Amino acid sequence: MTEYKSDLLRLLSERGHIHQLTDAQGLDALAAKEIVVAYNGYDATAPSLHVGNLASVMLLRRLQQAGHKPIALMGGGTTKIGDPSGKDTSRQMLTEEIIAANIAGIRKVFDRLLTFDDSATGAIMVNNDDWLSKLGYIELLRDVGPHFTVNRMLTFDSVKLRLDREQPLTFLEFNYMILQAYDFRELALRHGCRLQFGGSDQWGNIVNGIELTRRMNGIEVYGATTPLLTTADGAKMGKSVNGAVWLNEEMLPNYDFWQFWRNTDDRDVGRFLRIFTDVPLDEIARLEALQGSEINAAKAVLANEVTALIRGREAAEAAQATAQATFAGGGLGQDLPTLEVGDGSIGVIEALIGLGFAASRGEAKRLIAGGGARLDGEPVRDDTAVIEVLAERRLSSGKKKHGIIKPA
């Protein structure tokens, strides 16, 4: 592990947040001598962020914990365009009213994780629509356009992915990287912002912003990306069998959120505790060293601490109590029906029939359609879903029937 002088980079490194730095030595020296203002941007495409966004939000929390100033940039302007990074299709166009409502919903998680006040390190939330909507097209072409070449823009993964697959990339989306670069320059001028955070898929966009800010204004700024988070079995972090794991409770009940973390693969517990909680590192080392069934205690700590951060301590305690009543109190033991799966996966309908929760495919489909089937505490909404059985899974019918699916 690289030895850093600044508390900021030491903390980010110890917690597993760093993937790439544009100038590690320069940023380390800057953070060691003064308060660094840093931002991460979030487009308002939904009324809540999801678990896939949480690592970047935690970056802003770590920044403030290390004595620096975070900016949560809401993409009120860029949401109207659509980031092509990692996308196969164009983004649906949203109205001004929907974008404003989405920003209000997204604000909730930042209010829990950051301290917003007037101090030197107090977090602020800004909206890039404040400047992008006022930017004249001719002004953008004349002042910003000369700093970008189409040749280079065509090499970015966000563009190449769509072109290689012969999928449409609109001129609207092609401009997204220019607007994101302009955001960095604008935040540097308005708020003294010197650092942009982002996921590893944003590296090219971040570098664009650094170069534009230096060329137009002579300001030295920096970039840092987080690792692409995947689970130990290679799945993209933040996806459940039923889709996105939303941070806001209106989008996903507290119990289901808690259960998502409780079901973490044994191999991921330590890494997720470092990234997504404030549990001290020495305690994490103890928890991730637990063996056998004892690792379940570490998973419960992970679920409790993440849920407490995002939903509140009361929500975490209630979710754990529900889990204990459902599984421990309900007697999840040898007397429960068990289905052994030999090929690593099974269709949810076949599993419901195999456990005796449905007598036919039609009955199983009606159970799912009525919201009565739950996998590891999460509602099953798709009757074509396939259950991956790499470890023990819990399938329930209603509130009282529970069964175990496990590898043969």
UniProtKB/TrEMBL annotation:
L-tyrosine binds at Y39, Y176, Q180. Transmembrane segments: none annotated. Its main location: cytoplasm. A motif ('HIGH' region) lies at residues 44-53. It is an enzyme of class 6 (ligase). Its EC number is 6.1.1.1. GO terms for molecular function: tyrosine-tRNA ligase activity. Keywords: Aminoacyl-tRNA synthetase, ATP-binding, Cytoplasm, Ligase, Nucleotide-binding, Protein biosynthesis, RNA-binding. ATP binds at K239. It catalyses: tRNA(Tyr) + L-tyrosine + ATP = L-tyrosyl-tRNA(Tyr) + AMP + diphosphate + H(+). It is found in: Cytoplasm. A motif ('KMSKS' region) lies at residues 236-240. Catalyzes the attachment of tyrosine to tRNA(Tyr) in a two-step reaction: tyrosine is first activated by ATP to form Tyr-AMP and then transferred to the acceptor end of tRNA(Tyr). NCBIfam families: tyrS. Belongs to the class-I aminoacyl-tRNA synthetase family. TyrS type 1 subfamily. Homodimer. This is Tyrosine--tRNA ligase. It comes from Novosphingobium pokkalii. The lineage of its organism: Bacteria, Pseudomonadati, Pseudomonadota, Alphaproteobacteria, Sphingomonadales.
